[in-house]
Write a sequence for this structure.
């Protein structure tokens, strides 16, 4: 299975939301990382064939996904960023409804709904109305509906928003386990989420893929550009004005700064092991990110 | 089918829908029928000027009327009219004010219009003709009615553009009315009411949100990416909307018919509708008229449901969908006096706008040179409007497949 993104572009009037983006995705987990307004949601909507591109196309195994229509939607699962639900439905009823829309036979749907409610720890509240749920619970219902048809392509727009740390970790594990021979694309601006599970990370800015690669490859790109520097507390602010500071830690009367810089910022600075956060900040700069 | 069942269930899940259905039932069936039969319409009167002063004894009162008027025989003849008028003149209406209302005195009142020469030419009698008419002169009832009908139709032909063929068609209809008319207490049938436009706000509130509500719930992106997408969902929504309209109609019509059976019974079904309107030409009995009324309501409700669903599919805003839907029913009513005559006439063919009372009228339309009596148009056009609206609703909803 191969999902090809070919020079995908979307203009809103004079504003370019997505600018000639190309990539070829094979089974695995893909993280789409970018600041708010980077074009992630627009790209995802085009990948789901619900937003018409200005130019370019998305192909699944060589076929245009728009032309595939129901055949494409049959292998697709999507969690929109603003997940809408029917407030008067219970979680189980809502999932049964979406299952019917996805054309899943009734008995099979029942089984799958039960399974997903269990996987997402919603069994206890399965018969409670969604309007009574917390943000995290609603988000889990949204993830469950996206996974109902066991999709070959699972697209999740900000799946971890509203989830508490425990829920986020559970979701990461669930997606890692789910991926296997499927394509999972998730967008987020929380670096640690993609760092934990993404095989390949696309860093997006101003509608373009700025850089992409595995977490290690991206981190490796900033090797030698990440420094730790211990400075007196009163000088910390000056360093923050002049450099991209990834972390700020107190140690007695001093502060340990993690600085992203092409050049060694000071004689006292020592190079350290880069992580994805550093790469992200390197490409975006602390202010932009 | 399963999707339809789930969508239909979803429609019924909201408080708004239940509230509408309960209110509609209370207003139309409980207030409009039950209270009408038992209290306001047929309860015995203490004061003929205030129906709220009636006693809560409609069931017994109706039985009394039915019993009382059975003594006038089972055919409407000159003698029947004479006897009823004579008996009325014998009552002291100040002592028994209730006698004025639901007895068949009303029929007698109507029939006396055929005897204008009996009215006091000096205008000295400050009371209705029924109180002083010379009963011995109440003769030739059917001939007088035929003459007046001929005169009325001729006047309509000359003044309102009715063609000779139309007039003949109406006279031919009239000639099918069998004489003498069967007779028994008629007022119960004459007072039957099915006010279908009162269903309009409830249908608009429920179905106006059917499509536009999806935007409110922000479910569009999720629904678009399901296998069946919006097109199938749109069809299912339309079906569940029509099912709701049918259910609401069945609840209201069923409730009203049930109460009618309880209060009026079945006797009198074969009375001619001329007891309601003396100059009507349709050779129909009360049952046929009621069936027409029910069909008129059903088609109107379906037609209006189609119209409301189209509005809901066309706009993304719930309130706008509701306002536009209600406008179809109420604007012709509110702005009637300012609208050109032709536009007002056309508006009567909108679902739930026109009136089934055209069965008592003489309106004839010409389509491809053929004269068609207006009640047939009134029962066809609203349904056609609904049928035309439905594919447009599905289409306009489905074309928003990309968000």
């Amino acid at each position: 299975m191969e999902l090809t993104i070919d020079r995908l572009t979307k203009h809103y009037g004079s504003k370019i939301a997505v600018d000639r983006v190309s990539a070829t995705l094979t089974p695995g987990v893909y993280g789409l990382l970018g600041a708010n307004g980077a074009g992630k949601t627009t790209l995802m909507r085009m990948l789901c064939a619900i937003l018409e591109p200005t130019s370019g196309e998305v192909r699944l195994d060589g076929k245009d996904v728009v032309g595939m229509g129901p055949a494409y939607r049959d292998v697709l699962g999507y969690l929109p960023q603003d997940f809408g639900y029917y407030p008067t439905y219970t979680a189980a009823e809502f999932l049964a409804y979406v299952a019917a829309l996805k054309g899943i036979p009734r008995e099979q749907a029942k089984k799958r709904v039960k399974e997903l409610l269990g996987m997402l720890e919603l069994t206890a509240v399965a018969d409670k109305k969604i309007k009574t749920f917390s943000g995290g619970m609603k988000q889990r219902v949204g993830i469950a509906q996206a996974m109902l048809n066991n999709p070959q392509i699972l697209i999740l727009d900000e799946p971890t928003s509203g989830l508490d740390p425990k829920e986020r970790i559970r979701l990461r594990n669930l997606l890692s386990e789910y991926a296997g021979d499927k394509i999972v694309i998730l967008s987020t601006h929380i670096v640690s989420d993609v760092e934990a599970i993404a095989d390949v990370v696309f860093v997006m800015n101003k509608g373009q893929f700025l850089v992409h690669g595995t977490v290690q490859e991206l981190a490796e790109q900033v090797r030698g550009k990440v420094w730790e520097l211990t400075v007196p507390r009163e000088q910390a602010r000056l360093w923050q004005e002049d450099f991209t500071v990834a972390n700020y830690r107190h140690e007695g009367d001093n502060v340990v700064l993690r600085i992203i810089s092409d050049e060694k910022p000071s004689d006292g600075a020592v190079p350290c092991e880069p992580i994805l956060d550093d790469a992200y900040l390197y490409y975006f700069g602390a202010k932009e990110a | 089918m399963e999707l339809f069942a789930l969508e239909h269930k979803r429609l019924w899940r909201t408080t708004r829908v239940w509230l509408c259905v309960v209110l509609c039932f209370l207003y139309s069936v409980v207030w409009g029928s039950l209270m009408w039969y038992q209290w306001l319409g047929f309860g015995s009167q203490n004061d003929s000027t205030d129906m709220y002063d009636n006693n809560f004894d409609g069931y017994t009162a109706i039985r009394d009327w039915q019993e009382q008027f059975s003594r006038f025989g089972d055919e409407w003849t000159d003698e029947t009219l004479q006897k009823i008028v004579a008996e009325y003149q014998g009552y002291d209406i100040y002592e028994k004010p209730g006698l004025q209302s639901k007895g068949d005195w009303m029929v007698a009142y109507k029939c006396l219009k055929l005897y204008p020469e009996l009215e006091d030419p000096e205008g000295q009698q400050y009371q209705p003709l029924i109180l002083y008419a010379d009963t011995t002169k109440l003769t030739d009832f059917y001939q007088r009615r035929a003459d007046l009908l001929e005169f009325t139709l001729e006047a309509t032909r000359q003044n309102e553009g009715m063609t000779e063929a139309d007039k003949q068609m109406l006279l031919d209809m009239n000639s099918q009315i069998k004489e003498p008319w069967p007779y028994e207490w008629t007022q119960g049938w004459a007072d039957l009411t099915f006010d279908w436009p009162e269903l309009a706000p409830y249908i608009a509130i429920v179905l106006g949100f059917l499509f536009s509500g999806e935007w409110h719930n922000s479910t569009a992106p999720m629904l678009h990416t399901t296998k069946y997408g919006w097109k199938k969902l749109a069809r299912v929504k339309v079906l569940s909307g029509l099912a709701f309209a049918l259910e609401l109609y069945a609840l209201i019509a069923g409730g009203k018919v049930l109460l009618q059976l309880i209060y009026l019974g079945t006797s009198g079904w074969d009375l001619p509708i001329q007891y309601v309107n003396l100059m009507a030409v349709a050779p129909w009995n009360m049952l046929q008229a009621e069936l027409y009324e029910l069909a008129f309501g059903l088609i109107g409700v379906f037609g209006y449901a189609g119209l409301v669903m189209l509005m809901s599919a066309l706009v993304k805003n719930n309130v706008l969908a509701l306002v536009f839907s209600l406008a179809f029913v109420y604007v012709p009513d509110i702005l009637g006096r300012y609208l050109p005559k032709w536009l007002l006439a056309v508006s009567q063919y909108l679902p739930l706008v026109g009136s089934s009372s055209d069965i008592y009228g003489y309106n004839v339309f010409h389509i491809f040179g053929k004269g068609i009596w207006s009640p047939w148009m009134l029962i066809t056009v609203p349904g056609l409007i609904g049928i035309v609206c439905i594919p447009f609703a599905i289409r306009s909803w489905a074309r928003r497949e990309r968000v």
